[in-house]
Amino acid sequence: MPFPTPVFFIFFLIVFAGSWLLRPWRAPWKLFLLGASYVFYASWDPRFLLVLLNATLGAWGAGAAIARLNGRPKKLILALAVIGNVGMLAGLKYYDFFRESLASLLHTLGLPGAMPTLLILLPVGLSFYLLRATAYVVDIYRGKTTAASPVDCALYIAFFPQLLSGPITRPETFITQLKSKATVENPHEHIGRIVQGLFKKIVLSSFLTIQATDPVFGLPDKYGAASIAFAVLAYTLVIYLDFSGYSDMAIGTAGLLGFSSPENFNLPYAACSLQEFWRRWHISFSDWLRDYVYIPLGGNRKGRFRKHLNALATMLISGLWHGVGGTYMLWGLLHGVGLAVGVGAKKTAGAAGSALGWCITILFVSVTWIFFRAESVAAGLGLLRGLAEFRPGEEIITPLLFFVAACGIAYCAFENHLLRLFVKTQERLPLALQGAVIAALVIAIVEAGPDIVPPFIYFQF
Amino acid sequence: MKKNSPLKIFCLIAVVLIAVGFFESSRLIRFLPSAPTAPADRAALWLARKSESIKTPIRSYLEKPHRTADKLEPSDSATPSALPDLLPLIASLPPLPRFAPPAPPYSVLIVGDSFIAERLGPELEKTLASFQDVSVRRVGIYSTGLTRPDYFSWNEKLETLIAENNPNVAIVMFGANDAQDAYASGTLYAVRYGTSDWDALYEARVKSFLSILQNHRITTFWIGNPMPRAEVYKEKMARLNRHYATAAAASKNALFISNWTTLANASGTYAEYLPDENEIERRVRASDGIHPTPFGAGIMTRFIVAELQKYLILTLPPKTENTPAAP
């Protein structure tokens, strides 16, 4: 039941009605939202619920124990909870990678022995809800939040608009909202965010994915330098449109249920340095990494060398979190090194310095996306070689593709203005016309989109 | 009603859903399972079918009458037809004497669903394109097949691709999305999967697809589906493979290549892992138990190319040696 499907919107309408009807009665309302979230998650595979329940029970149990204990036992419980979450992620997501890597190493060394093969199904959204479960336990340990009731804790971890790919709300922020008296603030903005997300995903991202990035990244050797360069630019757009489109829909649907969510993007490709890029890109995850990885490692408190080393370690962990294999690790490593050397950091003041910083940053970010998307490190290097050698080959660029990419760039630059325009227009219209405008926009999006919309990129993580 | 009241927003969303559902009803029907179990699916399908029942008489008044060539009566029977000859038929059938592959150069057209769109398709394209006198055009489209031409018409797409590429060899692979209820053209009722009507309709569609290739004198290799993990899919895939084998055997210049046990273990049963050249067990199936991993795609490609080499002259180009530049 992914977001841009008719079934999801019917499900959402039912949940919307139930949620606002039950809102005056706090306990039934929370149980209703929790049940809806579990129904939503079980629609992928009911077995995934067991993993979600396990993560929830672990977090709630550890949180309750930490709240009661002091000293070393408290620290021990925290360590066990964090290790449990990391272990669950490693076991379900990385086991095969570890097994194959170890077997290859043993084979190279001429040693016997191997780990057994296991049939493991990777639950969708696992990486995201484990981040929330970890944040819950650590924040109780740090005294930033108090231990919540089992239902509040379960709802924080499983709240369906944010379950699969965030944004990663902090426990205190979310649980406070469960206690407050909610109203639907800015409904036109929330509806506008959903429509905007649909446009980004169904029209722009899908078109560029199908026509440009999938063919070139699928068979890199076949295409010439111009096509490769275009596909890299297209993927730079696609990953933003795809993920920010998802975030728009998540924020919009949560908002209509009376929950505010943190923003995930703030014009990231306008950043003039890599550090600024990470303050604007996947913000809720970047903040999570800062608070739960970078700062515990020492942050920038232990000298310049440790600061760079901590940034490098944090980005490597970020790469690993996205997936196993050399491509994600290399992507994380490159960003870690980029942060350490200060890619795009302004050396000269003024417009010229900013422009230079922007050019270097966007080039660095686009080129590193190659490894994020490539099937393997060798395939990524092949694409870079193709670019560097101005290799001739098949070309994919058509006027229509060029036009859609230009629309994508323009949309990225003006999306906030367009959203404001939508909200202002809607506020002036009577209800019937509001519905007509939204319906016309959605129909236009569906008609302009391809028959088959590729899945969200971040669902695989 | 208060400004921003939930009731007002509910009405707004409901009106938008109904309007979009009405306008996009045919697309909705294509996307939804034809026998839904989930309440939201049922509601969406009910809305879409109601919309279609309102729109159809208007449409037929405005447009020409629908084709009725392959219109079938609705079937009440939901009993799956017996499949006693299932396993013998999923093995490759020997080519008929009239199977006469062309001589090089080869212009190969690879078409199919998600198997062709990713992993297997690109790997196969890359390998075939590395041979001398072989050019390849690959078109793989996710979530498509031959059951739902109302959703995506592969026959129409094939005609366009043939006109554009003028191939003399075609490699075809379908089935991952085809074990579902079908819609005969011009009708709104489903032909239930598992019935003899469905078998007849599906086989007719496979033959119709093959006849386009046959009319253009294109030698066709129809790749069967590999054995999936789940028992329920196993029966479905085997049924589909049987239709491909039968239709290919009845067509001129078409050959069915069984792929059923390509990713199976030594005892011929489904395998999640297979050993590589260093005897390290590597995953060959994606988490869905249907599609291959890159390693599995490599095994399938080697098998398919070896099968093709029995009928096509596939030779690697001579290695170019680095000769010193003339002074």
The Rg value of chain A, from CA coordinates, equals: 23 Å
How many strand segments of chain A?
Answer: 0
Helix content of chain A: over 70%
The coarse overall form of chain B would be: globular
The main β sheet of chain B shows up as: 5 strands, parallel
Low-confidence stretches of chain A: none
Strand content of chain A: under 5%
How far is the N terminus from the C terminus of chain A? 17 Å
Biggest interface, which chains?
Answer: A-B, 52 and 52 residues
The biggest sheet of chain A amounts to: none
Beta-strand portion of chain B reads: 5-15%
Quaternary class: heterodimer
Strand order of the largest sheet of chain B: 2-1-3-6-7
* Structural class computed from helices and strand pairing of chain A: mainly alpha
Distance between the termini of chain B: 91 Å
Alpha plus pi helix count of chain A: 18
Outline of chain A: globular
- The mean pLDDT of chain A is 90
Q: Could you spell the SSE succession of chain A in H and E letters?
A: HHHHHHHHHHHHHHHHHH
The helix-strand sequence of chain B is HHHHEHHEHEEEHEHEEEH
Please explain how this structure is put together.
The complex is a heterodimer of chains A (461) and B (327). Chain A is an all-alpha fold and 461 residues long. Chain A is 73% helix and 0% strand. Chain A is built from 18 helices and no strands. The longest helix of chain A has 38 residues, at 71-108. Chain B is 41% helix and 12% strand. The model of chain B is unreliable at 65-91 and 323-327 (pLDDT under 50). Chain B is built from 10 helices and 9 strands. The termini of chain B are far apart. With 327 residues, chain B is of the alpha/beta class. At the A-B interface, helix 1, helix 4, helix 9 and helix 18 of A face helix 1, helix 2, helix 3, helix 6 and strand 9 of B.
